[in-house]
Specification:
The complex is a heterodimer of chains A (about 120) and B (about 350). Chain A contains three helices and no strands. Chain A has about 120 residues and is an all-alpha fold. Chain A has one domain: NADH:ubiquinone/plastoquinone oxidoreductase, chain 3 (Methane Monooxygenase Hydroxylase, Chain G, domain 1), CATH 1.20.58.1610. In chain A, helix 2 runs antiparallel to helix 3. The longest helix of chain A is centred in the last third of the chain and has 28 residues. Chain A is flat and about 70 Å long. In chain B, about 65% of the residues lie in helices and about 5% in strands. In chain B, strand 3 and strand 4 form a beta hairpin. The radius of gyration of chain B is 21 Å and the shape is globular. The chains are: A mainly alpha (about 120), B mainly alpha (about 350). The interface between A and B is large, with 65 and 81 residues.
């Protein structure tokens, strides 16, 4: 039982619960459709155009920067649990690694990718 | 306790696993439901109102309105379910699952009490036994999945408010995730492992004889970063850009109603519970009881619950005390304050450890 069986069981239960609830609700709830009910909400006026429009590029930049930094964090994790044994050597390693990271961080900051107005 | 232990001897390991599953699942789910009521009562208390105090069981038993979540649940079952014609039907149905499943799964590795030995066998009070190799990487990974629920709900609704809310909150969630994981790396360093049980064991005893040996007293800066990031991760005020009800109607769940809305709302509270449990485990000693060397199993479970519910209350407290941030302020705080702060925290503690502290 040391394996991940309980996680599998948990996924099954977690998926089954919404399915059961939604289906039970389907049996109980009324359904009187009308065109107005199924219209997309827009402050009570008739919806004008598609919602999926062009979006500010900053959001995508954030996603790209997140990817870079998150991968760097993942690299730090195996290092972190060895820190007790690595001692000074580990600290120098961290310094080198973080220097490169901070270099990139300074670069994106200077390019204004972190500035929102 | 003895009766329970003798029952455990006769039952195989599977029964223990199922029992833990029921405890974790039902516990988180029902606490989340109760917390919808606590939130409304809490907001009422803070704003000098009364709040829901009327709902009564069978029209008689009125325990300060504690039946309110039950009444809400029943009402959600009987509400007409609308899927807008412009929505992407499949994804619209999938979004509540994507929100709820990670919210319910995050709790699996967190120990909610100390392990005990009975009849030569060791029983762990966490769904996954310690030494599973994933440890706290698992709740971090599962927590990262929460972005999909919000984003899929927002995009599939094909509603302008929804997309605004979804984009804003997904960008905020990923921004704060970096600061959060760097704060946790500093904790891994101190404990020398990923496993929550190792982290909790490292927090036993006292610090300078007057304080419990909790991580918050070792890494206060890390705690501030982690605490702040948890608000962004759970989409709670002051960072609730997914919903932002005074700005963008109801944000990502504008088009949701009926049971699908209730699943989305419940998933938020399940996240809140997991986040509180994480804070209690990582920075406040988990099931450790301050100044008690070897707490009994019951005491340890109680200690964990008190810490967890305290943080769950702090979430409510802060929501009704602070106003919402402006979006550019949020991004500045995430990238220009939280990230450097967590890096400083990491470097400082790495330096201390390299000096043999």
């Amino acid at each position: 039982m040391r394996g991940y069986a309980s996680i599998l069981l948990l996924i099954l239960v977690a998926v089954a619960l919404p399915i059961i609830i939604l289906n039970l609700s389907r049996l109980l709830r009324p359904s009187w459709p009308s065109a107005a009910k199924y219209a997309t909400y827009e402050c009570g006026i008739v919806t004008t155009n598609e919602a999926r429009e062009k979006f500010s590029v900053r959001y995508y930049l954030v996603a790209v920067m997140f990817l870079v930094f998150d991968v760097e964090t993942v690299f730090l994790m195996p290092w972190a649990i060895q820190m007790k044994e690595l001692a000074v050597f580990g600290f120098i390693e961290l310094g080198l690694f973080l220097f490169l990271l901070l270099f990139g961080y300074g670069y994106i900051w200077s390019k204004g990718a972190l500035t929102w107005e | 306790m003895d009766k329970l232990a003798s029952l455990l001897h006769t039952s195989p390991a599977i029964a223990w696993m199922v029992a833990k599953l029921v405890i974790v699942f039902a516990g988180v789910f029902s606490l989340a439901a109760v917390w919808t009521w606590v939130e409304r009562r809490g907001s009422a208390m803070i704003q000098d109102r009364i709040g829901p105090n009327r709902a009564a069981l069978f029209g008689k038993i009125k325990i300060i309105g504690l039946a309110q979540p039950l009444a809400d649940g029943i009402k959600f079952f009987f509400k007409e379910d609308l899927v807008p014609h412009d929505a992407n039907k499949g994804l619209f149905w999938l979004a509540p699952f994507l929100a709820l499943v990670p919210a319910l799964m995050g709790f699996a590795v967190i120990p909610f009490g100390r392990s005990f030995v009975s009849g030569g066998q060791e029983y762990h009070l966490a769904l996954l036994d310690p030494g599973n190799g994933m440890g706290l990487l698992y709740p971090l990974a599962i927590g990262g999945m929460a972005v999909y629920g919000v984003l899929v709900a927002a995009w599939s609704s094909n509603n302008k408010w929804s997309i605004l809310g979804g984009m804003r909150s997904s960008a905020a969630m990923v921004s704060y995730e970096i600061g959060m994981s760097l704060a946790v790396v500093a904790l891994f360093m101190r404990a020398g492992g990923y496993d929550p049980s190792e982290i909790i064991t490292a927090q036993g005893g006292t610090l300078w004889k007057v304080l419990p040996n909790w991580n918050i007293f070792h890494q206060p800066l890390g705690f501030i970063v982690f605490f702040t990031c948890m608000f962004a991760e759970t989409n709670r005020l002051p960072f609730d850009f997914a919903e932002g009800e005074s700005e963008i109607v109801a944000g990502f769940n504008t088009e949701y109603g009926s049971m699908k809305f209730s699943l989305l709302a419940l998933s938020e509270y399940c996240h809140l519970m997991t986040a509180s449990a994480l804070m209690a485990t990582l920075y406040f000693g988990g099931w450790q009881v301050p100044f008690v060397q070897d707490p009994s199993v019951m005491l340890s479970v109680l200690s964990f619950l008190v810490k967890m519910l305290f943080f769950a209350w702090v979430f409510v407290w802060i929501r009704w005390t602070l106003p919402r941030f402006r979006y550019d302020q949020l991004m500045h705080l995430g990238w220009k304050a939280m990230l450097p702060m967590s890096m400083v925290n990491l470097v400082f503690h790495a330096w201390r450890m390299s000096q043999g502290h």
